[in-house]
Amino acid sequence: MDYKLVLLAFNFLVIGVTALSPITIKIALGAALFKIKSMKQLTINNELLINVPKILEEYGVGYAKFNNLTIYGFDTMAYDFDPVDLPDEGDFTVNNIPVNLSFAEIGVRSKYYVDMGILDTIPVYGEGDFRLGFNETNVFINLTMSDQYAQNISIRDFDLKFVMRDSNQNYIRNFWKNEVVSNFLSSLINDIEPLFCAWYDYNSECIDCILSRIIQKIADQVLYPGKHSHIKCRCLNEVTDEMQNILDGFLQALDSNTLQMWIKDTLKKPQTVKVARKIYDNILLTVKDENNLLN
């Protein structure tokens, strides 16, 4: 039932983007968001089994199973949008679509069963429930699209911004099949989450830019397979080409069902290490700056 509502909402969006005008977009987007809000929650998978990939077996073995993995909080969503008809460019109609979404609470919950070992030293096991969510989450989307007589639809620009606040209602139960350990982990998660939110806010300009460009590139690939759009983020100035190559490879692997082989090959490439090092250096720089402010 959940997926039928999602498909119905997607169909409303398709109607809107295949007849681009502020009125049709407003009707279609409003109907889609209303359907999403009416879902209240979305069960992603009744049973999801995750095995440690063979390429990582030197670091750990085992598996995790999640039952009734569910995203909750859609019924707390409020939304506002106002499509604008921009000046035409020759035969192309251009529309700007700003969308503001706010959630009083949103998160994921599930039943889990995990049985893993890390580095032949740390046992990770348990069976119970977990919940991870955020309060007062805002999502700001600014989308510019164009079409040529309701065809050749393209995304000219896509900007995404998240604002998250922590929640003290997170929990994991029966981890290590021990109530004391579970309570400790639940408290730890609730203590760490505000730090994560503060870190995200501090780095949001860069993170939101990367997420926006990745989503835009994937959307372009769906609309026009083979189209090459470039990721441009100031915070990734010297590794943009490497990130671009990684994403190109990911999309090709996804299309050809060779994702596992791509993961194995990509982890070995120097360009992957370079991107990871840049992100790691940015994190260290952020921690250093925050320590300086505290001192």
Blueprint of the fold:
Elements: H1 2-17, H2 22-39, E1 41-51, E2 60-72, E3 77-81, E4 84-89, E5 92-118, E6 122-148, E7 151-165, E8 171-172, H3 179-223, H4 240-256, H5 259-268, H6 270-294
Antiparallel strand pairs: 1-2, 2-5, 3-5, 4-5, 5-6, 6-7, 6-8
Mean pLDDT: 78
Radius of gyration: 22 Å
Structural class call reads alpha+beta
The CATH architecture category equals: Super Roll
Q: Report the sheet-strand fraction.
A: 35-45%
SSE succession: HHEEEEEEEEHHHH
CATH topology: Bactericidal permeability-increasing protein, domain 1
Unreliable spans are none
For the record, the count of structural domains works out to 1
Q: Got a strand count?
A: 8
Q: What is the CATH C level class, in words?
A: Alpha Beta
Shape: globular
